[in-house]
Amino acid sequence: MGRFIINGERQLSGVLDILAAKNSVLPLLAAAILTDEKVVLHNCPDITDVHNMLAILQSLGSVTSFENGVITIDSSNINNEIVEPKLAHELRSSIFLLGSILSKFNKAILSYPGGCEIGERPIDIHLKGLKELGVHITEEGGLIYCKNNKKITSNEIVLDIPSVGATENLMMASVFADGIVTLRNVAREPEIVDLQNFLNSMGAKIYGAGCGVIVIHGVKRLHGVEYTPIGDRIVAGTYMIAGAMCGGDITLKGINCEYLSSLVSKLSKTTCNIQVNNDIIRIKSKGRHPRLGKIDTMYYPGFPTDLQSQMSALGAVADGISIITENIFETRFKQIPEFRKMGAIVDIKGRTAIFEGVPKLYGAEVKAEDLRGGASLVLMGLYACGTTVVHDIKHIDRGYQSMEVDIRSLGGDIIRAD
Ligand code: UD1
Predict the structure, then answer these.
(1) Of 72-81, 109-118, 321-330, which gets the smallest average pLDDT?
(2) pLDDT score, position 115
(3) How would DSSP label each residue in 245-273?
């Protein structure tokens, strides 16, 4: 399963280059099958989720390679519209393939992804949107059968909630529409804008991403492209919070500072000194901070749910009461019992965690239950006195490329062990 062994209480200082965002690369890989020509993606993270998505593309018939951060996809001989259930279960984001496979073959068969570590994660918004586009959908034995009897034509769809995945799926499903498709109440995350930019650089005509309404003028075909996805705001945010907790001076390169404005705004109220300059963020911290006040996770540009666990780690050691409410996913406090093993004082009331910050944490044996919760345990271990062992780091490897290497380069004492 793998574990990290961390000796805490070291300051973190140095410079890190931020790789492309997992949440951009995954939908971009799904979109890459929309052309028969070669697609090249640069600066990609070597993480399990990306490898799992590449395995699914290969099972569809795409030829892929991944070397030194460069992914190449050739889908000229793609011949299979069925995503094998075993592969789909490895990766929830396989659901993004529904839209792109449908656009490619006019039919798609995918297994139902079901819930996951952080909540139920239904896909009703994806399916409702596709149905409204005219796609015929049936479900049987855990499989979703989708069929397009005729081309998608002009249409207007209003999403019940601004789901990131549903927005991306509907964009990919509509790219070859015979007319104009308007999607309202869509997600505004930077990764949606990146998908729009990627598809447009392949010849699509999509407008409005980032503003809540997306308009897609259908095109006949897409061509190949070489593209560098945006930097990972969640990885960058994780290291910013690590720096805030441990003290030191960290510079992060390759991340658009605007994407992290909700985090920067919260950290600016602590004793951190943050300088932002285009795609460089520098955070200086002297250690302990005043209470964080109230933090509510929200759709972008609100505070990201994917940074809630890491911010909880900071809340556990900030001086006073910090209150963090998780509004997006139901079961995203799985790290809290592990926090308590390290000396944190936390009360959970429904979707809200109330932290009574402590000055000292103690190393302990803890277990990662999900990706970001696992990252937060590493931050706790870096702050704590003594040795912390974080078990089940396979969850962390889904979204952070060699996290221990990054942290060691900043002066942290962390090793990977079996
Ligand atoms: C994406 C991100 C994930 C992030 C999340 C929210 C990727 C690969 N993953 O996940 O890291 O935490 O956005 O920012 O990009 N919902 C429904 N029905 C649906 C779809 C969603 O009820 O059909 C609900 C979900 O259960 C959740 C909320 O909507 O409560 C937001 O989910 P969504 O935006 O779809 O998240 P993902 O796209 O799965």
Answers:
(1) 109-118
(2) 52
(3) HH-EEEEEES--GGGGHHHHHHHHTTT-E
- Closest residue CA from atom 5 of ligand 1: 164
| Angle, CA 32 vertex, CA 80 and CA 259 arms, to 5° | 140
List the residue whose alpha carbon is closest to atom 4 of ligand 1.
Answer: 306
Q: Quick one: CA torsion of 233, 236, 240, 246, rounded to 10 degrees?
A: 140
Q: What percent of the chain stands above pLDDT 70? A: 99
- Give 118 Cα–ligand 1 centroid separation in angstroms: 10
Distance CA 363, CA 144 (A): 46
Whether the predicted pLDDT of 1 surpasses 80? no
Question: Which pLDDT belongs to residue 8?
Answer: 97
How far is Cα 376 from Cα 390, in angstroms, rounded to an integer? 10
Atom nearest to 306 CA in ligand 1: 12
| Rg for the chain, CA atoms, rounded | 21
Ligand 1 pocket, CB under 6 A: 23, 26, 93, 119-126, 161, 163-166, 187, 191, 305-306, 328-329
- Beta strands 225-227 and 39-41 are parallel
Give the range among 145-149, 239-243, 293-297, 356-360 with minimum mean pLDDT. Answer: 145-149
CB-facing half-sphere around the CA of 120: CA atoms within 13 A: 5
pTM, two decimals, is: 0.97
Spell out the residues 6+ positions from residue 417 whose beta carbon is closer than 8 angstroms to its own: 2, 3, 4, 5
Q: pLDDT at residue 28 above 70?
A: yes
**The residue to which tokens 């993606």 are assigned:** 41
Residue 78 above 60 pLDDT? yes
User: Cβ neighbours of residue 321 under 8 Å, at least 6 residues apart?
Assistant: 291, 354, 355, 356, 357
- The amino acid at residue 212 is G
Q: Which residues are catalytic, by number?
A: 116
Bridge partners of residue 155, in order along the sequence? 181
